[in-house]
From TrEMBL:
Name of the coding gene: zur
GO biological process terms held by the UniProt record: negative regulation of DNA-templated transcription; regulation of secondary metabolite biosynthetic process
InterPro entries, alphabetized: FUR, Fur_C, WH-like_DNA-bd_sf, WH_DNA-bd_sf
Positions contributing to Zn(2+) binding: C99, C102, C139, C142
Stated name of the protein: Ferric uptake regulation protein
SUPFAM superfamilies linked: Winged helix' DNA-binding domain
């Protein structure tokens, strides 16, 4: 789906929820979507300052908190970074594959993994409050490029 359509869907959801989707929040969401991968708050702040020169760290963190609460973005805890989510109009299970070499993050939505994880937590009487599963490794592109370097 095109970026403008996603932003319009986000605006409509905010209207339906009775929330203020300020220009800054929209711009931060646009920057996240445009980046296309995990990005740190300070990298976003640097980009936001191109259009809002007076933006400070609290500006970006308030916008990111809003986007996280509304499901428009995900936090990649192990990278202390943020990722645009185009599936924000419905709740969905989420697992992240993170390449330690190139930094690419792949968002999965596997219900079987989610169900097994919840079942295991339940067996231990554990109540999950944040259910992001992150796995680190190497993506196919980095694995194959690394393999090509060792060939002689």
């Amino acid at each position: 789906m095109e970026q403008d359509q996603l932003l319009e869907r986000a605006r409509l959801l905010c209207d339906q929820r009775g929330l203020r989707f300020t220009a800054t929040r929209q711009q931060v969401l646009r920057l996240l979507a445009r980046h296309g991968n995990a990005i740190s708050a300070y990298e976003l702040l640097d980009q936001l300052r191109l259009t809002e020169p007076n933006a400070k760290p609290p500006t970006i963190y308030r916008a990111l908190d809003f986007l996280l609460e509304q499901g428009f973005a995900h936090k990649v805890e192990s990278l202390n970074a943020y990722l645009f989510c185009c599936h924000f109009d419905h709740a969905h299970p989420m697992q992240l594959l993170i390449c330690d070499r190139c930094g690419n993050v792949v968002e999965l939505h596997d219900k079987a993994i989610d169900s097994a994880f919840m079942e295991q937590a339940s067996l231990y009487g554990f109540t999950i409050t944040n259910k992001t599963i992150e796995a680190h490794g190497q993506c196919a592109r980095c694995t194959s490029s690394q393999g090509n370097k060792h060939e002689g």
